[in-house]
Amino acid sequence: MDVNKKVILGFTGLIASGKGTAAKYLEEKHGAATYRFSTMLRDILNRIYVKQTRDNLIRLSEFIRDAYGEDVMAKTIGQDAEKDERKIIVIEGVRRLADISYLGQLPNFVLVEIFADPKIRYERLIKRGENADDTKKTYEEFLADHQRSTELSILNVITQAKEKIDNNGNWENLHRQLDDLVAKYT
Predict the structure, then answer these.
(1) Which positions are tagged coiled coil (predicted)?
(2) By CB neighbour count within 10 A (0-12 exposed, 13-18 middle, 19+ buried), where does 26 fall?
(3) Cα separation, 127 vs 116, whole angstroms
(4) How many domains does the chain have?
(5) Given Cys at both, which of 52, 64, 92, 101 links 36, Cβ 3.0 to 4.6 Å?
(6) What is the DSSP letter of 32?
(7) pTM of the predicted model, to two decimals?
(8) Is residue 58 assigned to a domain?
(9) Once rounded to an integer, what is the mean pLDDT over residues 52-71?
């Protein structure tokens, strides 16, 4: 690894495709720093004692972007990433074209799509229970979530991805692809 080279990996993908799992692996194996778009939203919801549901996260994100500009969250995370001294930075949850318009200007930014089949993603969503409403969600509700503005915008973002990670397989397959990605860009 070139000790002076820093790479910023922007992870995009549909609900429960494995963005967080991939980021966690890179943290543990390669010492990466991770920044999530949803972290700032969850922090605000916690502070105002509002339940962390997908609806509330979307509503808050739209409010912030309407009030302060479509790219305000990308600018915040991008500045955090630039200040971070670690050599591998993961920005998890790139969802909008405005996000990649800003993040794409950062040196050594690489947009990475992580994908998996819908049934696999649904099973993962139920198992992880990240949001208050996830564990009781039906498959039909899960599919309906893909019609929300935040998920529809991802369809445009993934077309811009420079790299793709197939997360339909086992842990070893995912880890191998991530290790290859790190080797390619560091």
Answers:
(1) none
(2) buried
(3) 15
(4) 1
(5) 92
(6) -
(7) 0.90
(8) yes
(9) 94
